[in-house]
Design a protein that fits this description.
With about 425 residues, this protein is of the alpha/beta class. It is built from 15 helices and 8 strands. The protein has an 8-stranded mixed beta sheet, with helices on both faces. β1 and β2 form a beta hairpin. α14 packs antiparallel against α15.
Length: about 425
């Protein structure tokens, strides 16, 4: 009930804080004016150097609000990035059938469908890229008739879109065989999502399942593939199931480190925990052109892995990452302090913690904490005038709260304005 209430609040507030613009494009390809709906991210004005992925929605009349609500909710929990949404109006004059005309023999756009195909690739996208700050990553989504049509972009050797959300596509004969062939042949990275449901239209459902039977056998590193078959859903209700599933598939690497990722992918590594973290954000940047500051939650996850596996030497490269992402904060010196403390170099640890004390607090790291750690270690140092070694530090297992959980993570923001504290969420 709490999450449902929050979902409704996010959707309602989204209309206030995000920008929704109705625009018109004069198309030479279509020889007519076409209405489009633009949804700009809430942070679009706040971060003038940030670029955003683009999501093109066929059937923008009724899919726009559903996608915008899901993206707003996911972004609230820092699971999904902000994107620029472009909805194409197709129901005012019943354009969706003529816009998406496909030849039943070749499965290629025909008549006005061919013009509409060129309109999106040669007019709409250049218009959006020129007017707004867009990242190279482009997605497209549609339902039944429009879902089948968006598959036509896969017939290009270098498809203009990087991710495809095809919900209950009304596939023409032969397309269920051609699409898997194209997915296997395309060299660039492709995200492909399609769905059906138990209560879907039978003739459409049979071809969708036939497509999945072949496509799921494709095993190439450039293809990120998913098919959902929803139980108890109808042709129209499957949309509300498909949207979050598709978005979370496409942006899975964007999400903060979860308990599952920590336990199954990080904690089991013999070494290379900091490398894992650096590569995760490198993939985010290369895949979606999003350059983010590494989340504090993710720093804590790697810290927990280092402590769990007693790989204390990795605190040094972790400190380097911290200095790069949060240069004014105490995070980097805190990491160095932990390395020295765990390896018995208490004097160096004290110095690191006191240096951290002079820097900005961040997340749950406070000045009081740094002083307390330094004072505790001072008691272990040899007394003046007495010979002896520093008392060794008793090995501890990482505290349970150091392991990432599925509670709201730290907000990720563009690196031109790195955050100084974790996002508070109730």
């Amino acid at each position: 009930m709490k999450n449902l209430l929050l979902f409704l609040i996010v959707i309602c507030s989204n209309a206030v804080f995000s920008q929704k613009i109705t625009d018109t494009i004069s198309s030479k390809k279509l020889n007519e004016d076409r209405e489009i709906i633009i949804g700009l991210p809430p942070s679009y004005q706040k971060h003038p150097n940030q670029k955003y992925p683009v999501l093109v929605l066929l059937d923008g009349d009724f899919l726009f609000d559903a996608f915008q609500g899901a993206l707003s909710y996911g972004n609230y929990w820092d699971d999904l990035p902000e994107v620029i949404i472009v909805g194409i109006t197709q129901n005012k004059n019943n354009e969706r059938e003529t816009d998406c005309a496909i030849d039943e023999t070749t499965s290629l756009p025909t008549e006005k469908g061919e013009s509409f195909f060129e309109f999106m690739g040669m007019e709409l996208l250049p218009y959006i890229e020129k007017k707004y700050r867009t990242a190279p990553f482009k997605m497209i989504a549609g339902l039944d008739t429009t879902a089948a049509f968006l598959n036509c972009y896969l017939y290009k050797d270098n498809p203009v879109f990087d991710a495809y959300i095809s919900m209950s596509p009304e596939l023409p004969a032969g397309m269920e065989e051609q699409i898997p062939e194209r997915l296997a042949a395309i060299k660039k990275p492709i995200f492909y999502y399609h769905s059906s449901a138990e209560g879907d239209v039978k003739k459409m459902r049979n071809r969708i399942i036939a497509l999945d039977e072949v496509a799921k056998k494709i095993s190439i590193p450039t293809l990120n593939y998913r098919f959902d078959d929803f139980k108890g859903a109808s042709h129209y209700s499957l949309v509300l199931n498909s949207i979050p599933s598709a978005l979370y598939q496409i942006f899975s690497v964007y999400q903060p480190i979860s308990t599952t990722e920590f336990n199954e992918k990080i904690a089991v590594l013999p070494s290379g925990y900091v490398d894992y973290l650096a590569k995760k954000y490198d993939v985010i940047e290369k895949s979606f052109a999003l350059k983010l500051a590494i989340r504090l939650n993710d720093f804590k996850a790697i810290e927990a892995a280092i402590l769990k596996n007693k790989a204390y030497n990795e605190f040094e490269p972790l400190a380097q990452l911290a200095k790069k992402n949060y240069p004014k904060s105490m995070l980097a010196d805190y990491q160095l302090g932990q390395m020295y403390e765990k390896t018995g170099e208490n004097a160096k640890a004290i110095k690191a913690y006191l240096t951290a004390f002079q820097r900005e607090e961040i997340g749950d790291l406070t000045k009081d904490m740094m002083v307390e750690r330094a004072d505790a270690l001072k008691k272990l140092l040899p007394k003046k005038g007495k010979k002896g070694k520093e008392e060794p530090v008793v090995e501890e297992t990482p505290p349970t709260d150091a392991v990432p959980t599925d509670t709201p993570p730290t907000e990720a923001t563009p690196t031109d304005t790195p955050p100084t504290e974790e996002k508070k969420k109730e």
